[in-house]
């Protein structure tokens, strides 16, 4: 187990390093001169010169890259050009809402997909199974922001059960904070739950054809019991694999949903910074989102090992070549 | 003899009904989408951009405006049709380029020697792992918002995926006997890749294209909704939804129609992909009765 964790941590650090290089490289190579992008095409040479000096753009690229990377650890990522906020402090302030939203919908999506997918696989020839199948197909086609708008209209404006937007920290008022997060989290979970449900369903259908299910049934288990005891665990392994591939979509959804519900998180700042051409801010925000994806990936790696004893034993017990 | 064959074959509608259900529904939805998008080039009920202040915020079913009007008095139906056109334009261009470039990259990787195959494969894996939305946002920061940013972003997002999907099947085919025979006959590697491998993976690429098209429509709408994609006055489903948000209470139908259009179109392309997978996959094909 310890070995697996060490390996996951190492690959997390490596991936974060490579990711930071790609983000830096893309922004510098595609965008061209950073000062030019920030100031727009009508900037005077004097202003360009001054901004280049301020942002340290005259130094060679590797000096710029490592001073940016160093800033991640020392807490100095510079200042936003037009809004003049300290980028590091601002990111810290906005990390809370985004984390709650992303992890919250992951916590809803995975169990929901497991339950729905298993159920529709067991009921594959019946109407109820078919309904889930069709519903998940439609769920994939619904854009998260449209789901959000409908929920705001129905549960926020018409019924008045939940606030239509905004964010309250759970440290201030726990009840109001949870109430505010219900609609955005559900809107975000809809698409991911639908995708995962389809994977669980087909994984379960595969598993139910395996010999060990027949053996379990021969030993007196019902089909449903065999599915619950042996099937779900096996299907969970493929759910975790597919789940890690959905993390990018989850963060993309978070960015959109924060903008629908006016939640002051990373995603909202990212969109305003992109529209304001704040290259320096965008660079750090994208790194933060990448790090969040990697951390969730890491947690899923751990879950993988916990679910599947074959991996646990082969890597934890005996030495791996 | 021709007569005999014509008589023994069931009528067309019967053969269509024997196709898998997802293919029929998906085909119908995609067909309507394409028809509406193309029709909007030559005809819309009103000029989608014409402002008629006197007819502001009319409800659906009003005289002359089937789906009502927006806050500037523009006809919603016409805007939806023009939005279909924009979705078609952005998604078609980005999906097509991504599949052509991605498949070529995949073929190149599959056909390369062990060293380059490993290097290219790893690079493609990194590309697949990178969250596409982040690349899209990076691009939009540098190039500025607009349809162009959306097209470039979706294309770059899809290229590694198309390459990844191509590599495996292409390598399987390269290991077959007739490929060796072709080499023995003196064919070059690129000849084999283009004349023997490509036709065999074409069904796969068609299915991939349908599924990617669905994803591209969703991404285009999301980028336009965030203000990063299509800019005013270009009509786009995502932008219509963005404009509808402040009027959610006063005119909820403005939010309703563009969303339904997105869902039906995306659903259509996904179902079409599923259906094509069933009939193009030789093992399941015999059951469909088409081939």
Q: Biggest sheet of chain A, in brief? A: none
Please name the CATH topology of chain B. Answer: MetI-like fold
Structural class of chain B: mainly alpha
Low-confidence stretches of chain A: 315-321
Residues in helices of chain B, as a percent range: over 70%
Structural class call of chain A reads: mainly alpha
**What is the general shape of chain B?**
globular
Q: Radius of gyration of chain B, Cα only, in angstroms? A: 23 Å
Can you walk me through this structure?
The complex is a heterodimer of chains A (321) and B (291). By secondary structure, chain A is mainly alpha-helical. Chain A contains 14 helices and no strands. Chain A is globular and about 85 Å long. Chain B is built from 12 helices and no strands. In chain B, helix 4 packs parallel to helix 7 (147-174), helix 5 runs antiparallel to helix 7 and helix 6 (132-143) crosses helix 7 (147-174). The longest helix of chain B is centred in the C-terminal third of the chain and has 38 residues, at 189-226. Chain A binds chain B through residues 18-19, 22-23, 26-27, 30-32, 37, 137-138, 140-146, 149-150, 152-153, 157, 247-248, 251-252, 255-256, 259-260, 270-271, 273-275, 277-279, 282, 286, 289-290, 293, and chain B through 126, 130-135, 137-145, 214, 218, 221-222, 225-228, 241, 244-245, 248-249, 252, 255, 258-259, 262-264, 266-267, 270-271.
Give the key terms.
heterodimer, A: 321 residues, mainly alpha, MetI-like fold, 0% strand, globular, disordered C terminus, B: 291 residues, 12 helices, 74% helix
Sequence-ordered SSE layout with sheet pairings:
The complex is a heterodimer of chains A (321) and B (291).
Chain A: H1 2-31, H2 34-39, H3 45-55, H4 61-74, H5 87-122, H6 127-141, H7 144-158, H8 174-207, H9 211-218, H10 223-245, H11 247-260, H12 266-275, H13 279-307, H14 309-317
Chain B: H1 2-8, H2 12-17, H3 21-42, H4 76-111, H5 114-129, H6 132-143, H7 147-174, H8 177-184, H9 189-226, H10 237-244, H11 253-280, H12 282-288
Helix pairs in contact in B: 3-4, 3-11, 4-5, 4-7, 4-9, 5-7, 6-7, 7-9, 9-10, 9-11, 10-11
């Amino acid at each position: 187990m310890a070995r697996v964790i060490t390996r996951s941590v190492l690959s997390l650090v490596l991936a974060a390093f490579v990711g930071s290089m790609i983000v830096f490289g893309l922004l510098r190579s595609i965008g061209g001169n950073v000062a030019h992008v920030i100031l727009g095409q009508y900037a005077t040479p004097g202003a360009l010169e001054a901004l280049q000096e301020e942002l340290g753009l005259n130094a060679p690229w590797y000096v710029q890259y490592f001073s940016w990377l160093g800033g991640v650890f020392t807490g100095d990522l510079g200042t936003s050009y037009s809004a003049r906020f300290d980028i590091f402090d601002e990111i810290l302030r906005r990390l809370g809402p985004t984390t709650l939203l992303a992890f919250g919908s992951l916590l809803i999506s995975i169990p929901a997909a497991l339950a729905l997918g298993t159920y529709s696989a067991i009921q594959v020839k019946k109407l109820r199974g078919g309904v889930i199948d069709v519903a998940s197909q439609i769920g994939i086609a619904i854009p998260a922001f449209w789901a959000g708008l409908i929920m705001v209209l129905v549960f926020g404006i018409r019924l008045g059960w939940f606030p239509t937007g905004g964010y309250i920290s759970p440290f201030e008022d726990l009840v109001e904070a949870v109430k505010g997060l219900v609609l955005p989290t559900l809107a975000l979970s809809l698409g991911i739950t639908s995708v995962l449900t389809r994977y669980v369903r087909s994984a379960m259908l595969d598993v139910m054809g395996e010999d060990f299910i027949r053996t379990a049934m021969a030993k007196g288990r019902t089909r449903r019991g065999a599915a619950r005891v042996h099937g779900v665990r096996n299907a969970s392994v493929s759910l975790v694999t597919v789940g890690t591939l959905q993390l990018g979509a989850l963060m993309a959804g978070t960015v959109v949903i924060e903008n629908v519900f006016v939640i002051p998180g990373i995603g909202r700042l990212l969109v305003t910074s992109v529209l304001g051409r704040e290259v320096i801010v965008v660079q750090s925000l994208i790194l933060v989102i990448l790090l969040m994806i990697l951390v969730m990936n890491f947690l899923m790696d751990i879950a993988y090992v916990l679910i599947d004893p074959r991996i646990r034993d082969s890597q934890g017990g005996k030495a791996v070549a | 003899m021709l007569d005999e064959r014509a008589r023994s074959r069931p009528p067309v509608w019967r053969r269509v009904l024997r196709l898998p259900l997802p293919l029929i529904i998906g085909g119908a939805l995609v067909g309507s989408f394409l028809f509406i998008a193309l029709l909007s080039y030559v005809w819309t009920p009103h000029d989608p951009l014409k402002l008629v202040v006197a007819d502001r915020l009319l409800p659906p079913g009003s005289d002359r405006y089937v789906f009502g009007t927006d806050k500037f008095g523009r006809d919603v139906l016409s805007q939806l049709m023009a939005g279909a056109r924009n979705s078609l334009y952005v998604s078609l261009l980005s999906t097509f380029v991504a599949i052509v470039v991605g498949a070529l990259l995949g073929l190149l990787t599959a056909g390369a020697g062990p060293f380059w195959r490993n290097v290219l494969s790893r690079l493609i894996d990194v590309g697949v792992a990178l969250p596409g939305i982040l690349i899209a946002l990076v691009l939009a920061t540098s190039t500025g918002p607009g349809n162009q940013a959306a097209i470039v972003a979706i294309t770059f997002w899809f290229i590694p995926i198309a390459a990844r999907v191509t590599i495996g099947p292409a390598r399987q085919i390269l290991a077959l006997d007739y490929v060796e025979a072709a080499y023995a006959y003196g064919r070059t590697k690129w000849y084999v890749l283009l004349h023997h491998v490509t036709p065999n993976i074409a069904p796969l690429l068609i299915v991939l294209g349908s599924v990617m098209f669905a994803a591209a429509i969703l991404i285009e709408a999301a980028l336009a909704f965030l203000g990063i994609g299509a800019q005013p006055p270009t009509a786009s489903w995502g932008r219509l939804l963005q404009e509808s948000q402040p009027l959610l209470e006063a005119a909820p139908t403005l939010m309703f129609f563009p969303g339904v259009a997105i869902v039906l179109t995306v659903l259509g392309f996904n179902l079409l992909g599923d259906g094509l997978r069933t009939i193009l996959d030789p093992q399941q094909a015999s059951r469909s009765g088409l081939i």
